Amino acid sequence: MPRLGVRAPVDPVGVTGDGQVRVPEDPRRVGWYRFSPPPGASAGSAVIVGHVDSDRGGLGVLVALADVRRGDRVLVERSDGGSVAFRVVSRRTLPKEDLAESGAFRRDGSAALTLITCTGPFLPDDGGYRNNLVVTAVPASK
């Protein structure tokens, strides 16, 4: 996210034992959900997840999503050396239980990039946050 000065290594991630998207433990890294289309695919939503913070590593790289604005560019460098540019079209907060049905994980339709992190309030008894912050971006015109 050039405007925000955010750069992070991307790791392919799968699911946890209870079926949730696995998020990289290191809050300075993000994960591409490998069951979603890759960034730059012609259809569906490529999903990238990361921590907002961590009790082991301080603030996470995706804490910056709170400052993302409509029109911001997101650049994804692919493993083949190419890169794909996206333009932010929305930022919304969803209860975690609504994320699966939100369309964030769709595998068809127009191409998009979906960035997901946690957002408040923090629930100490649950060890996590109540909501997800979901940023949607579409391929940027050249």
From TrEMBL:
<dbReference type="InterPro" id="IPR005754">
    <property type="entry name" value="Sortase"/>
</dbReference>
<dbReference type="InterPro" id="IPR023365">
    <property type="entry name" value="Sortase_dom-sf"/>
</dbReference>
<dbReference type="Pfam" id="PF04203">
    <property type="entry name" value="Sortase"/>
</dbReference>
<dbReference type="GO" id="GO:0016787">
    <property type="term" value="F:hydrolase activity"/>
</dbReference>
<keyword id="KW-0378">Hydrolase</keyword>
<protein>
    <submittedName>
        <fullName>Class F sortase</fullName>
    </submittedName>
</protein>
<dbReference type="InterPro" id="IPR042001">
    <property type="entry name" value="Sortase_F"/>
</dbReference>
